[in-house]
Each structure stands twice: as structure tokens, then as C-alpha cells.
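Practice problem 4.
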């Protein structure tokens, strides 16, 4: 699914109006019907409704919704803010329609002074002040109104976007001046800013309403951002040849597990095997030998010459993919061995955890990373490498720029994990849950992507598949075990069910 910018959404509206064809006022009416239906499915007509409408098309939507609710016997108070004396054409038309057919609706047009209505528990506020076109923080009277609404006990429904929130970059926004909606009814698709953790407090529950914008227009329009869906995964999955043998399924190498951190290597190795690799070799310090042999008997054990740490790069000619970093440690000797290993690798490489921490401490080594490298940082690991960030948008921008600079892949982990690609494209993942916020979950992901690479998937496919299936396995585990009790090994346990689900 594509995620369009505000500018692209405007272009798509125009394309729909021209090619359907449909008048803009009728497209607004279609949107308002969808919004009204979503509201009436949740609230009965005995709930008092207060509508706040701005002077643009978002306000036009709100006025149309007010009219439709009044026609269904809802008690509606509507306030249209026309401070500048300029309404958009469709907003003006919907003002006239509401005034002429308002029924149970009370209408006030605010041009100067505003005496706000009493907002109480049990009332419903519909926020139609500002939509996706906003490009600067709210100030003055509108900021005061937002604070007044937020301070009330009324339920708040925002149309398309909570007023004050911008659809992409909110780095320098004034967060106190953004509506905190209980429900956001967004039109046609999620907005980019909805995918960032710090904005969830404003969005509340999110419902996406299909207003039937032109499918042809959406198909033609390029999008820098997409959300991965199950259909995308199903298309990528490769069937196994009935006559395949383990030598054709790839040989993966996992390097990790300093003394005391053997568990990270265990998780990565098990996940690698569960992801379809024909063979997996794990290179680890000598003291981890018994642990690895016992917990992952299917893996081939390759011991480092040192007792407690990774000390020397190994040949990779016989391997199809390399995953390095889980539990690796950051000792000086390990750091030198790590960059030597990555530099000499003759197969695709996944770097995670301590491998990234080593890079962060020796930033110049970034220049030695091979093209096609896959880095899997969580937000703090990315900031150690690229500097502190004010918010998620800035962090995403830095991750995307890093992927382009390295001509590799940066998987920025989070609720909507962002896979940043060498060409600037970003694919957001749609699976996963809060129960996966547990130690070892990232080690499992590293092993999975390494296994998929060994299996023969290209980097782009392995990243998207790995992240999606990782989250799906976590969702299946949480469904049976609950989020609170989820641990990383549960993700591995439910990985076979994740594969089966997407193959159906």
C-alpha cells in the first residue's frame, strides 16, 4: 500500500475529479457520507454533537457531516471559523447547504469574538478545523481552542488528521497545540506522521475510510513510502523444488555470542534455521561450545581460538550469507576482527547489535562496508551511529540517508519498522506487537534475514520478508500467549505458523 504525501493527495484528488469524472463538491459529499457512517455506527443520536469547522476543505467536510447528522436527528451545534473572511469554494457551498437544511442543527459563524460552548463528558466533538494541508504550527486563537478541546472530557473525533498535526514532518511543531483525538477518521490512506510513536497520543484509535479515489491515479503515482501487506509477501515467497537438497538451500554463517551472551547466538542461529537455510554454521568463542551444541544440535559449530570473544575473521567462500553481531561484545580485538570479517565477506552481510555499536565507536569504518550491506538498528543504535534526533521523522530521514550513502539497507526497528533502501524508498512493516519489546527479539530478526539470504532471496526481498514474518510470528504468539508473557524464543516457535499463514 502506498503512502502519499499531502501534495500527492491533492494531485490524486484532482486526478479523481478529472477522470472519474466527479465534481469536487460531490467528492466532498462522498467523503462526508463515509465519515458520517463511521460516526453513526459508534454513537447513537442521543449523544450531543459539537462540530468545529475551519475555513478550508477539512471544514467543508465537517459542515457536510454536521448536516448529515442533523438529518438523522442528532442534536448538532456547529461553529465555522471564518476569521479572514475567506472560505474555500466547497466549504462555502457546504455552509449554505447546512444553513438551509440544518434541522436540529445550531449554526454559528465565527468572524471575530468566540464564546466557546460548554464541552462535557458524554458529548461528542467533531474536529474539522485543519486537515492535511496544514504546514505550520497552530497559534493564537486556534491554539487556544485546541487546548480548550483537549482539556474537556468530551470524546473527540478528528476528520482526516487531528488539527495541528502535519502529515509528514512535525519536528518543529508545537505539540501542546495539536488536538488529542480519541478517534481519527482518515481518508483513503494512513498519513506518514501516523506511523511515528510520538504522534500516537494525538491520533487515538485510527480508522481508514475508503472514499474511492481513483485506483488508476494511485497505480500511476510513484510513492517514496509504502506499507507492506500480506499480498506483497505472498508474491515474494519461493516454493521449494520437490527434488531440493540441503546444499541447494544455502549455507549461512552466524557470528556472535561473547562469553555470557551465548543466548543471543542461540536465538539468531535457531531463527536462521527456521527461515529455510539448508545449513547454518555458528562461529562463537570456545566457552559457548557446549551451550550451542546442546541448544541447536542442527547447527554446525565453528569455535573461535579465543575462550571468551570473537578474535579473528573466518573465510566466507563456502557461505551464502553472513549475520554478525548478536551478543558479539565490543572488545578492541573483537572490533578489529568484525570489520575485517565484513570487509572480506564474499556473500551478503547482516549487521546487528554489537556490530553496530562497534561501528558507532569507529565511524570511519562505515566507508569500508560493502554495497548491499544490511544494518538492523533500533532507534538508539541508529542515533549512536548518526547522531541524536529530535523525533521519529528526523530519525527516519537519517536512516534513509544512511541507506542511500552506503548503497545498502537500513532496517530501523520499531512498531512500524522502516526498511530504508538504497534508492531512497522506505517500506513500513505492518505486523508485530508490543509484546515483542523483549530482549533477544532483534537477534531473532537477524537470524531470519540471514537465513532468507542464504536461501537465495535478494537483499530487498529478505529484508521485507524477514521483518514481516518476524512480526507475524510475534502476533501469532501473542494471540495464544498474550503480549505480557512473550519472549524471543516464542517468535521462533511460531515462525512455522507464520510461513504457513502467508502461503495460504
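Answer key:
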Amino acid at each position: 500500500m502506498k503512502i502519499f504525501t499531502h501534495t500527492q493527495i491533492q494531485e490524486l484528488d484532482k486526478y479523481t475529479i478529472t477522470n472519474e469524472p466527479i465534481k469536487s463538491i460531490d467528492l466532498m459529499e462522498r467523503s462526508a457520507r463515509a465519515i458520517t457512517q463511521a460516526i453513526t455506527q459508534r454513537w447513537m443520536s442521543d449523544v450531543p454533537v459539537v462540530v468545529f469547522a475551519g475555513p478550508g476543505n477539512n471544514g467543508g467536510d465537517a459542515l457536510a457531516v454536521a448536516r448529515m447528522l442533523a438529518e438523522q436527528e442528532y442534536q448538532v451545534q456547529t461553529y465555522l471559523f471564518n476569521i479572514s473572511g475567506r472560505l474555500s469554494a466547497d466549504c462555502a457551498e457546504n455552509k449554505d447547504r447546512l444553513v438551509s437544511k440544518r434541522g436540529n442543527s445550531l449554526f454559528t459563524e465565527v468572524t471575530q469574538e468566540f464564546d466557546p460552548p460548554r464541552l462535557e463528558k458524554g458529548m461528542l466533538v467533531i474536529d474539522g478545523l485543519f486537515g492535511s494541508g496544514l504546514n505550520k504550527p497552530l497559534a493564537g486563537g486556534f491554539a487556544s481552542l485546541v487546548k480548550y478541546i483537549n482539556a474537556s472530557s468530551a470524546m473527540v473525533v478528528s476528520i482526516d488528521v487531528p488539527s495541528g498535526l502535519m502529515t509528514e514532518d512535525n519536528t518543529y511543531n508545537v505539540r501542546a497545540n495539536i488536538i488529542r483525538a480519541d478517534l481519527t477518521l482518515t481518508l483513503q490512506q494512513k498519513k506518514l506522521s501516523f506511523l511515528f510513536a510520538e504522534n500516537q497520543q494525538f491520533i487515538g484509535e485510527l480508522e481508514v475510510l475508503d472514499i474511492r479515489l481513483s485506483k488508476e491515479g494511485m497505480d500511476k503515482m510513484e510513492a517514496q513510502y509504502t506499507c507492506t501487506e500480506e499480498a506483497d509477501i505472498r508474491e515474494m515467497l519461493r516454493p521449494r523444488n520437490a527434488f531440493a537438497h540441503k546444499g541447494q538451500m544455502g549455507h549461512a554463517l552466524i557470528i556472535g555470542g561473547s562469553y555470557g551472551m551465548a543466548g543471543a547466538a542461540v536465538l539468531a542461529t535457531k531463527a536462521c534455521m527456521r527461515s529455510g537455510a539448508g545449513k547454518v554454521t555458528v562461529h562463537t568463542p570456545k566457552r559457548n561450545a557446549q551451550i550451542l551444541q546442546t541448544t541447536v544440535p542442527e547447527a554446525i559449530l565453528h569455535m573461535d581460538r579465543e575462550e571468551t570473544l570473537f578474535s579473528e575473521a573466518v573465510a566466507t567462500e563456502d557461505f551464502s550469507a553472513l549475520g554478525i553481531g548478536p551478543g558479539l561484545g565490543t572488545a578492541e580485538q573483537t572490533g578489529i576482527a568484525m570489520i575485517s570479517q565484513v570487509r572480506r565477506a564474499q556473500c551478503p552481510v547482516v549487521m546487528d547489535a554489537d556490530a553496530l555499536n562497534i561501528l558507532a565507536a569507529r565511524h570511519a569504518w562505515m566507508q569500508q562496508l560493502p554495497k548491499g550491506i544490511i544494518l538492523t538498528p533500533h532507534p538508539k543504535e541508529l542515533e549512536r551511529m548518526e547522531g541524536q534526533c529530535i523525533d521519529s521523522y528526523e530519525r527516519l530521514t537519517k536512516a534513509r540517508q544512511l541507506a542511500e550513502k552506503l548503497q545498502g539497507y537500513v532496517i530501523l526497528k520499531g512498531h512500524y519498522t522502516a526498511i530504508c533502501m538504497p534508492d531512497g524508498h522506505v517500506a513500513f512493516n505492518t505486523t508485530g506487537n508490543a509484546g515483542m519489546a523483549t530482549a533477544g527479539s532483534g537477534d531473532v530478526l537477524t537470524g531470519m534475514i540471514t537465513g532468507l539470504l542464504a536461501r537465495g532471496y535478494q537483499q530487498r526481498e529478505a529484508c521485507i520478508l524477514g521483518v514481516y514474518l518476524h512480526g507475524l510470528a510475534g502476533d501469532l504468539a501473542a494471540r495464544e500467549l498474550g503480549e505480557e508473557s512473550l519472549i524471543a524464543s516464542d517468535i521462533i516457535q511460531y515462525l512455522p505458523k507464520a510461513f504457513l499463514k502467508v502461503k495460504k
